[in-house]
Amino acid sequence: MSGAETWKERGIIPRVLTYIFDEFDKRSNMEYHMYISFMEIYNENAYDLLNRQNLETPLEEWGKVK
Fold this sequence. Notes:
Order of helices and strands: HEE
Number of strands: 2
Largest sheet: 2 strands, antiparallel
Radius of gyration: 16 Å
Helix content: 10-25%
Strand order of the largest sheet: 1-2
Distance between the termini: 34 Å
Shape: flat
Structural class: alpha+beta
């Protein structure tokens, strides 16, 4: 998904983000708001990889009172 360390061998995630930001640049007369989530699903649990606080807590547990 992420690819190798060289630009030529980058994975799907960096390629898609590059494409999106290139499209934003082409349409500079518009205003954009972009929100990104980077999720991992492991053993039927989902994790938000961009939020350090939630690395150890499955999404299913976020709304529950402890």
